C-alpha cells in the first residue's frame, strides 16, 4: 500500500521536472552542469561555481526566465578547481580571453587571493554599492549570500540529548569510554577542499582547543571528505553518525527532502562564511557576468538565493546572531594562504588526522 501511495508523488515530481521546458525554458542537464536558454543565442553567459547545481537550479532558472534570449551555461566545480583553473588560463601564452564570465565559490579566501593577485576585474553598480563593507572588497569580490558552518548528525545513529552543542562537548564525546564516534565521524579533507581548509584555519585562529580536537578526530579514525555532499551522503546512509564543519544550506536541503539529519550550531562560536563571486579578468562576456552578479545582489535575486539555495541573504547577516562569527572579505583571509604557513598547517593537520599506528599508517 505504501508503494502505491508513492506512485502519484513520483508522477507529480516527474511532471514538475518538465515544467521549465513546457514554459519555454529550454534546459540541458548533466551530472555537474545545467544549460538554459536558446542554443542559437549570440549572448552566452558562462558561470563556474562550487554551488551544487541542483540546489542552485531555482536561482538559475529564475534569471533565465527574466532573460529568455540569453543562453546560460552553468558548470559545478570544486573550489580548488575554480581557483587553479583561473590561474592556469591566465598563464597561457598571450592569455586570450576565455573561460567563465562569473566565478562563485564558497572558498572566499581563494577568491580573495585571485583578486589580490590580479585575476579579477572591478564592477561597480547600485547593487554592489549597497553591500556592507565586509561583503565587498575592492569592488572585485562580492558576497552573494552567507552560510553558517555547522555540525550535522544522523538522528538514528546519535541521540539528540547526546549530540554536542559546543566544540568542548564534541571533544568530550570523542573521548567518551564507549567511543560512540569511533569510525563514525567525518570532516573535510583540507588538502583537497578549499572551504574545508578555510574552516579549519579559522578554527585554529579562534579556538585554543583546535589542536586537541584534531588529535581526537584522528584517534577516532575520522573519515575525510572532499565536499559537503559527500559527507551528507555518508550521514544519510548511516555510515557515519556526525560530521564536523559542514555548510548549513546543503544540510537543510537534505532535511527538507526527508533525510534523518539534524543541524547543530556550535554555541561557542558558529562561523558565518560567504559565497563570493568575481568577474575574471579574462571573462569573454564580462558584461553578462556583471548582469548575473547584479541580479544575485538585487532584492529579487537575494530572495531567490534564500528560497532556492538555502543560503542567507547578505542583508540578513549584517547584524549577526549571538555566537555567530562572520568572516569578512579582505586581506586577512590571505594569512593562511602564505606558502610557509599553509605547509606548516597541513603538516600538523596530517600528523593529527593520520597518527602513526592508525590503520593504513606506518
From TrEMBL:
Keyword line: Signal
One GO cellular component, as annotated: outer membrane-bounded periplasmic space
Cleaved signal peptide residues: 1-26
Taxonomic placement: Bacteria, Pseudomonadati, Pseudomonadota, Betaproteobacteria, Burkholderiales
Keyword Hydrolase in record: no
Name of the molecule in the record: ABC transporter substrate-binding protein
Pfam family, one: SBP_bac_11
Coiled coil (UniProt feature): none
Amino acid at each position: 500500500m505504501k508503494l502505491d501511495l508513492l506512485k502519484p508523488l513520483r508522477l507529480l515530481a516527474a511532471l514538475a521536472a518538465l515544467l521549465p521546458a513546457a514554459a519555454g525554458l529550454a534546459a540541458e542537464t548533466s551530472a555537474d552542469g545545467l544549460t538554459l536558454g536558446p542554443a542559437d543565442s549570440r549572448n552566452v553567459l558562462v558561470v563556474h561555481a562550487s554551488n551544487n547545481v541542483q540546489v542552485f537550479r531555482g536561482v538559475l532558472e529564475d534569471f533565465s526566465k527574466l532573460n529568455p534570449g540569453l543562453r546560460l551555461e552553468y558548470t559545478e566545480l570544486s573550489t580548488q578547481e575554480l581557483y587553479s583553473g583561473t590561474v592556469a588560463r591566465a598563464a597561457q601564452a598571450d592569455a586570450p580571453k576565455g573561460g567563465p564570465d562569473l566565478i562563485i565559490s564558497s572558498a572566499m579566501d581563494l577568491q580573495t587571493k585571485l583578486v589580490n593577485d590580479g585575476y579579477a576585474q572591478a564592477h561597480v553598480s547600485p547593487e554592489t554599492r549597497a553591500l556592507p563593507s565586509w561583503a565587498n572588497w575592492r569592488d572585485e569580490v562580492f558576497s552573494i549570500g552567507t552560510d553558517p558552518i555547522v555540525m550535522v548528525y544522523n538522528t538514528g545513529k546519535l541521540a539528540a540529548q547526546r549530540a554536542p552543542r559546543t566544540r568542548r562537548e564534541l571533544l568530550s564525546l570523542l573521548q567518551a569510554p564507549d567511543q560512540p564516534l569511533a569510525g563514525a565521524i567525518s570532516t573535510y579533507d583540507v588538502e583537497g577542499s578549499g572551504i574545508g581548509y578555510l574552516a579549519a584555519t579559522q578554527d585554529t585562529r579562534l579556538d585554543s582547543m583546535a589542536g586537541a580536537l584534531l588529535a581526537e578526530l584522528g584517534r577516532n579514525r575520522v573519515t575525510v571528505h572532499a565536499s559537503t555532499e559527500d559527507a551528507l551522503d555518508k550521514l544519510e546512509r548511516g555510515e557515519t553518525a556526525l560530521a564536523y564543519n559542514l555548510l548549513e544550506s546543503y544540510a537543510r536541503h537534505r532535511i527538507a527532502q526527508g533525510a534523518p539529519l539534524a543541524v547543530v550550531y556550535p554555541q561557542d562560536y558558529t562561523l558565518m562564511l560567504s559565497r563570493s563571486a568575481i568577474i575574471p579578468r579574462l571573462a569573454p562576456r564580462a558584461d553578462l557576468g556583471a548582469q548575473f552578479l547584479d541580479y544575485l545582489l538585487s532584492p529579487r535575486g537575494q530572495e531567490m538565493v534564500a528560497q532556492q539555495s538555502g543560503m542567507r541573504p547578505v542583508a540578513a547577516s549584517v547584524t549577526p546572531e549571538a555566537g555567530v562569527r562572520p568572516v569578512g572579505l579582505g586581506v586577512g583571509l590571505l594569512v593562511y594562504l602564505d606558502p610557509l604557513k599553509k605547509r606548516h598547517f597541513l603538516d600538523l593537520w596530517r600528523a593529527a588526522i593520520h597518527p602513526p599506528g592508525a590503520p593504513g599508517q606506518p
